[in-house]
Amino acid sequence: MARTDGDSWDITESVGATALGVAWSRAQEQDTDCPLFTDPYAKMFVDAALERGWRLPPAHMVARIKAIGGYAASRTKWFDEFFLAAGANGIEQSVILASGLDARAWRLPWIDGSVIYEIDQPKVLAFKAEVLLAHGATPSARCVPVPIDLRDDWPTALRDAGFDASEPTAWAVEGLLPYLPASGQDLLFERIHDLSTRGSRVGVESFGAGFFDPEYLASRRQKLQQYRQEAGEEDDGNALDVQDLWFIEARTEVTDWLTDHGWEVTAIAAAELMDRYGRCAVGEADDATPRTVFVEGNKMC
Ligand code: SAM
Q: What is the model's pTM?
């Protein structure tokens, strides 16, 4: 379970399975009274993974995912709006970093001429392509997969795939940062900055000091333990906890980094965003609402 330098995964393994967890959560959103978005592809991915032997997360994890369902839906909606606004402002080139099973290239109304580059590990993107092909799904803009590890030289792979750094770009960093070491996060933003011309935008789900606070993380673990007990599951010490896949290290605040590098920044805390969309956390708000901040940067020069 522990992360190592250069580790890799298939869709049902390690960090790959987190993409399935998020897809499962998006599929659940479709059954709510007022879904914040429509994603018919999420269920296709989950069903295909189940057919390949993936098992739904154990009951305690399902309870956790449900508890943060309002958060996950709000996050999806925020990034949807980020891309729609970028398109409305004439940005035709987008890069989704750690795209996982994100189906925005298929489900959003992109402006004509848009191209979306999706970067993730090779086996994750292979699974996604296979499922979409089997369903005859066609993207609503040109979508170019860039299968590579984000700790490797992805800027070269991206350029080789056709990315044009002289064009303004909309970048999305969603559900990614805890899976990168702190140094990898800094390098990621340096690379985004170097590849961004004036007028580019970046949308980030950012995990700052509040998120990695040991007491907060301990309370999350404790809550999971409670879900496990409520589900009547035995604790053999090997139960899955997504925290075990994170690099828990002090990090640069994304808002500070972007501001220091000449980006104009706006930010909204998760709790406020959920309130805006009429969603609240189930259970105790303190640990069911992740302590994240949604940050948008506009490159001014
Ligand atoms: N952004 C997607 C979404 O919100 O649906 C997926 C989020 S999922 C929690 C995390 C994703 O990050 C997985 O698809 C995983 O493969 C990808 N990922 C994490 N670390 C990565 C790395 N070093 N290189 C490439 N992909 C990575």
A: 0.94
